[in-house]
Amino acid sequence: MGRKSVDAAKLKKKFNKMKDLGPVKKVVRINTAELQKKAQYGAAVDSGNLKRSIMLQIENAGMTGRVESMASYGAYVEYGTRFMYAQPYLVPAFLEQKSLFIKDLEALVK
User: Residue 40 burial (CB < 10 Å; 0-12/13-18/19+)?
Assistant: First the structure.
């Protein structure tokens, strides 16, 4: 049993019909916080700075969530360099949370 692909246009149309976007904003906020926790959990720990530097921001009047490492070397750890292997923490967290986020959004418009 395969997962049906998400029709973003249909979701957008249903969200535009909603009078109260509070539930959508709540889903964005909760899933962004979960993404942050998963990224922090998966981050390589040497001094703990990388883990502490993973921050979340809620933007666009609550409709957009962003998680990123504020450490200057965060991308090097994520993707590696010619001197060190990658130790991904953000992409795996995103891929795990993505399906949960879509499921939560679809539940709002059923």
Answer: buried
What are the beta bridge partners of residue 107?
none
Greatest C-alpha distance within the chain: 53
Residue pair 49/71 in contact (Cβ under 8 Å)? The answer is yes
Q: What is the pLDDT of residues 49-89, one digit of tens each?
A: 999 999 999 999 999 999 999 999 999 999 999 999 999 99
DSSP letter string over 16-47? Answer: HH-S--HHHHHHHHHHHHHHHHHHHHHS--SS
